[in-house]
Design a protein that fits this description.
By secondary structure, this protein is of the alpha+beta class. It has a domain of 29 residues. Helices cover 65% and strands 13% of the residues. It is built from 2 helices and 3 strands. The chain has a 3-stranded antiparallel beta sheet with strand order 1-2-3, with no helix packed on it. Strand 2 and strand 3 form a beta hairpin.
Length: 97
């Protein structure tokens, strides 16, 4: 879109310039900015979907590893959980005084 003294010009689908005043738009006109925003939106959506896929795989791997560790080391896990619970209880009880 080319701005000139209170007016705009954008090429139509045939390459002809369509001219108008600010605040108006030709029927069916799409500005170059909206096309770029559409492309950026698609790229961002693709990147977010890739990130979501990667995050889901990572969480699944961590969950499987944790499950395997807990099943193999049941008593160690229980002792660690009890110790952590005692520490948290001690810290929280100390704040009440």
């Amino acid at each position: 879109m080319i701005r000139a003294m209170g007016a705009w010009r954008i090429p139509d689908q045939y390459g002809n310039d369509v001219v108008g005043k600010w605040g108006s738009a030709p029927l069916g006109a799409v500005s170059g900015r909206s096309i770029l925003q559409g492309m950026k939106t698609r790229e961002i959506t693709d990147k977010l979907q890739d990130w979501q896929k990667s995050a889901t795989e990572t969480v699944q791997n961590v969950a499987e590893s944790t499950d395997e560790y807990v099943r193999e080391n049941t008593w160690t896990t229980i002792a660690c959980a009890a110790l952590l619970g005692c520490i948290v209880g001690y810290v929280l009880a100390g704040r009440r005084d």
